[in-house]
Structure formats: C-alpha cells, structure tokens
Amino acid sequence: MQFLSEAEVHSLLTYETLIPAVERALVNLSAKKxxxxxxxxxxxxxxxxxxxxxxxxxxxxxxxKLVTVYERNTALPTHQAVILLLDAKTGQPLIAMDxxxxxxxxxxxxxxxxxxxxxxxxxxxxxxxxxxVQARSHLKALLQVRNFSEVRVWSRxxxxxxxxxxxxxxxxxxxxxxxxxxxxxxxAVSSVREPLIRGVWLEPHAFICAIAAVTPDRRELDxxxxxxxxxxxxxxxxxxxxxxxxxxxxxxxxxxxxxxAGTRPxxxxxxxxxxxxxxxxxxxxxxxxxxxxxxxxxx
Length: 299
What we know:
Layout: E1 3-4, H1 6-12, H2 15-30, E2 40-44, E3 49-57, E4 61-70, E5 79-87, E6 93-98, H3 100-118, E7 125-129, H4 133-142, E8 150-154, H5 158-168, E9 171-172, H6 176-180, E10 185-188, E11 207-210, E12 229-232, H7 235-241, H8 243-248, E13 254-255, H9 256-261, E14 271-274, H10 279-298
Parallel strand pairs: 1-6, 7-8, 7-10, 8-9, 10-11, 11-14, 12-13, 12-14
Antiparallel strand pairs: 2-3, 3-4, 4-5, 5-6
C-alpha cells in the first residue's frame, strides 16, 4: 500500500482545495451523512503525552487518524499523525499518509470557514495569541477569506513572536490584552491550561476562534468571554471534550455545519467558535490528497 510522506502531502494539498472540502464535510457531519464517534484518547502520563484514535466514514471513504500530542517535544513536532483511508464499499485499504500537516492545515481551514461565515466583510484587525505552527497556518488560511489591514501577534515567548512577525510583516504586542482589545477577529492558538482571554477585553462584535484548549481539564476563555453565542463542530464532542463549555455550562448555540447549511439562523453579537478538531475534516482533507495523488499518477 502506498504511503505519502509529509513532503508529498504538502505538494498535493492547498487551502484553495481544502477550505471547500472541510466546509462540505462540516455540513455533512451535521446532516448525519458522516459517521464519526468522539475520539478515543489514551493518556501517556509518564511522558506527558496522549494518543488519540479518530475514525470517520462517509459514502465513499473510511478514514482513521492515529495522532499523538507530546507537548514537551522540542526536536520533534508536538503533534504527529498517520491517516489511513479505506474504501467504504469494500473495506479495502487504499492509501496511508503522514497526518501532521493535514492536522495543521485542516484546523486552520475550518477556522477560515468559520471566519468567512461570521466575521463581517469589513473586519480589519486580527489578533493572534501564539506564534507556533497553528499561528502560521491560521494566518495563511484566514487571509484566504478576509483582508486584514492590521495583524497583532502575542506570544509567551517574545523571540518566537518576533520571528513570526518578521517573517510575515506583522506587529508584535506585549500582552494578550493588547492583542485582543479592538480586534475584530481573535485567534487563540497558544497552548494553555487556564483562561488566557478575558471577556472584558473583547469588542461586542468580536469573533473568537478558540483552538488551543481541547481537553476537559483545560480552558482558554474566562466566563465573561464565554458569554457569547457558542458554535462547535460537533455537539457530542464538545460536551465531552471542551473544558470551556463544561466549566461554564454555557449552552451550545449550533454546530458550524448547521449554520453553513442554513438550518439554523446566524447568531448576532459576539460569537465564539470553540474548535476541537474532528475526524470528518481529517477524512475530507485526506480524501483531497488521495484524489490529487491519483490524478497526478494518471497524468
């Protein structure tokens, strides 16, 4: 069976093809056209890591992602993954591929879908909390859907923020508050255990993509920040995995796929997209890579 390396995945996957693919997947997930259980997670306590199994099935493909997160890694990426695709009609294995880049890009692509839907067309100020892999991927993806005239970057490691800002021509700021105040869109991608974003800093119209806290024991938004319309990829996953939602008992307004399909009205006022990452979007991204590899092989 063919295995695609990260370099090969990189040569086949673009945000131009990925963003519409994950949008379709989110709509189909909410419409129950994709089967997806909540991921199974095994903690590796002695190494402060965890291993997760993320399967999903649509009409054509079965996909499963095996992903590890080791936050203490320095020489290796903190997130590593492999994705296997199988034929949904026969169960035949089709292809395996590195999943690290897919995880990186599909996370940002989903945020871009949400930003295009929720952020006003005149949104001009973007605040990014974090300066690592997800900060870079989110900047690239969000620039596909909005034209920001000012992008502010904060990081708990100022040297990393400076490198990121220099690379993309951005503005560094000294505190999370200075990144958030006055921002139309806020992207939270700094790994945290306790709330980093305070509601008192946020504009009434702000749209927040909260990406960083994805386990029940972690939060990235305080209670005031969570006093907003809450949108998620999957209600089932959010009610089991999101510390921000579990810690505040804040009701979920809708799944993103419901709003994209128009089966629920768009909310008004401040909105939080609490993103946890779902297997349906990994399946969509891997499907794009698989089809592109087939087209390349036949050309």
